[in-house]
Design a protein that fits this description.
single chain, 396 residues, alpha/beta, Rossmann fold, 2 domains, seven-stranded mixed sheet, globular
Length: 396
């Protein structure tokens, strides 16, 4: 693979997906700086620095560690530490509901108690890791590390078994930046190491060619607390219409609160259903009790939800669709199947999360191309971890 960076910062690449793995470090900025600025001078630099401060359990010889983050990532991290015989001495979390409780017989405290951990490593296991790292640095606590749980997601099939399918997606991608980000995401998932991920240079769901526009009718699968919903509205001066799907009782309540908080009632229609390939009642469960992290359960669901195909909803409402966003915890492929006629008819812009399942790194793209071969595909990555990889698609 050949890579060259133009004066405007764009990257042109040639060669296949396997060759892309080897060129990654030479093409993007060093992890210790962004745009030549020291780490502390930019948020991107802080995120990169946090990624570089990896906790290596095989090299640890202390009495134990504290974990910052008592949600799903923290519990995955605790599972990882247990495998290496490392004891979790205690937990920290910014959620007042978690502070004061005990997790696996270890106390959980709020950030105000951080000094109690002085002398012990603090392993950060949270989606807010760079914010936490900044907070720890400002508090004079330097003995902190990013808890790499990526190897628990390690899937060697990404580097061999699915090489043909993934290489086809790579060849479909429209620009060099997408190819590099995609290759990095595949390598990170295949080896189970977040250090390989590369960030896109635009905000999530704000791809330069695949984003909301004035007058769009948007279907948002997985609206959660209306954070992305609000972003869409603000980006087009509130000149849009959004159907926001959020099926769980707790998340739908938070969605309604977010809509009211940001004054979006005239633009947003909240829908207490999920998107799927057929109409059904399905079990739903929370992952490790972290707010917002719910997925379809084969058994043992914590609640039942109603789901339906987007095609049926669109026909019933008599609407067109200009943009579809899906971040629905692994249900994306089934939901796309249920939106096939809508996609063929309206050819909307697509923003689809592909990181929840290893197979989705190729299944989503192949499904979209099978529905409408003229779709142009891009890949964005928006997190210092393996999560938040998004496929963007548009028909010009």
């Amino acid at each position: 693979m050949l890579a060259r960076q133009a004066d405007d910062g764009t990257v042109a690449v040639s060669g296949g997906l396997p060759a892309a793995f080897g060129v990654l470090p030479a093409v993007l900025p060093a992890q210790g700086e962004v745009g030549g600025k020291p780490v502390a001078d930019s948020l991107e630099g802080m995120m990169a620095a946090v990624s570089a401060r990896r906790f290596e359990p095989t090299a640890f010889a202390g009495d134990g560690v504290f974990v910052y983050g008592a949600g799903s990532r923290g519990r995955l991290m605790a599972e990882c530490l247990e495998r290496f015989g490392i004891k979790v001495l205690g937990w920290f979390d910014g959620d007042p509901a978690k502070a004061g409780c005990r997790i696996d017989d270890a106390p959980c405290r709020g950030p105000e108690a951080l000094l109690e951990a002085r002398g012990y490593p603090i392993v950060i296991a949270s989606i807010h890791e760079w914010e936490i790292a900044r907070r720890l640095t400002e508090a004079g606590i330097g003995d902190y590390f990013l808890g790499i749980v990526g190897h628990l997601w390690r899937d060697p099939r990404m580097l061999g078994w699915w090489s043909r399918e993934l290489s086809q997606v790579y060849d479909w991608l429209e620009d060099g930046a997408s190819k590099i980000v995609f290759a990095a995401a595949i390598k990170a998932r295949g080896l189970g190491d977040d250090v390989y991920v590369r960030f896109s240079d635009y905000p999530q769901y704000r791809h330069p060619r695949v984003q909301a526009a004035e007058g769009d009718l948007i279907v948002e699968g997985g609206a959660y607390v209306a954070d992305t919903t609000s972003m869409y509205c603000e980006s087009v001066g509130k000149r849009c219409r959004i159907y926001a799907f959020e099926p769980s009782q707790e998340n739908h309540r938070d969605l309604l609160a977010g809509i009211a908080r940001d004054g979006l009632e005239e633009m947003v229609v909240p829908i207490k259903r999920g998107l799927w390939s057929s109409s059904a009642t399905l079990g739903f469960r929370a992952d490790f009790h972290e707010r917002g992290a719910y997925r379809i359960a084969d058994e043992g669901g914590t609640e039942e939800i109603e789901v339906e195909p987007l095609d049926r909803f669109v026909e019933r409402e008599g609407i067109r669709v200009d943009l579809i966003k899906m971040d629905i915890e692994g249900a994306e492929v089934e939901a796309l199947k249920g939106a096939s006629e809508t996609i063929r008819r309206f050819r909307p812009k697509l923003q689809i999360s592909i990181y929840h399942c290893s197979e989705h790194y190729f299944e989503v793209a192949h499904l979209i191309k099978a529905l409408v071969p003229s779709y142009r595909l891009f890949i964005g990555h928006h997190s210092p971890t393996i999560e938040e990889t998004v496929l963007y698609a548009i028909c010009d």
